[in-house]
Amino acid sequence: MPRTIILIISGPAGSGKTTLCDALLEHYPDQVERVVTTTTRPPRPGEVEGLDYHFLQREAFEKRVAAGEFLEWAEIHGNLYGSQKRHLVDKLRSDVDLLLNIDVQGAATFREAAQSEPYLAERLVSVFVRPQDLSQLRARLEGRGSENEASLARRLKTAEEEIPRAAEFDYVIDSQTREEDFNHLLQFYHQAKGLE
């Protein structure tokens, strides 16, 4: 029987990782389940509590960090993001693969946690979505229509720091079209599960 995995998809903002996650969930609705992470940023239009993110005020988030409730957390673009242990452990009891869409910093913290958590170490698989260049990233971010110039500049600066860290991941998707990226993701997913 194929092993169950915890699949991390990471990459700079605008790299297409959310689109890939959504496509994988649609392709394997009974086999893959998304772990909903927690953030202090306000919901974007259409985002739903518990479905897109768990939204917390900064003070509540920090209290949970202090209580050791997060497996990983980081401050990105002025907001806190993290994965609460209980959300992950609860889902590991079911026989599905878990999918996390997290930033590069969060992925590194997960790998660190796996060194002392055997249930993570034996299941953790990471994929980095690498944009062709910063102009591709800028076009994708502008296409969202949710970024002002300051936020765009901040995200592109962060991307410059994140892209060289692709080598830390198990697999790298050199981003092309949505279809090509998804085909690469499927290939890596099947390899990680021992299906190829």
What does this structure look like?
With 196 residues, this protein is of the alpha/beta class. It has a single domain, classed as Rossmann fold (3-Layer(aba) Sandwich). The chain contains 8 helices and 9 strands. It has a 5-stranded parallel β-sheet, with helices on both faces. A 4-stranded mixed β-sheet has the order 4-3-6-5. A hairpin with a 2-residue loop joins strand 5 and strand 6. The longest helix is centred in the C-terminal third of the chain and has 15 residues, at 178-192. The radius of gyration is 16 Å and the shape is globular. The model has no long low-confidence stretch (mean pLDDT 88).
Concise account of the structure shown:
By secondary structure, the protein is of the alpha/beta class. It is built from eight helices and nine strands.
Key words describing this protein structure:
196 residues; alpha/beta; Rossmann fold; 5-stranded parallel beta sheet; 4-stranded mixed beta sheet; 8 helices; 9 strands; 42% helix
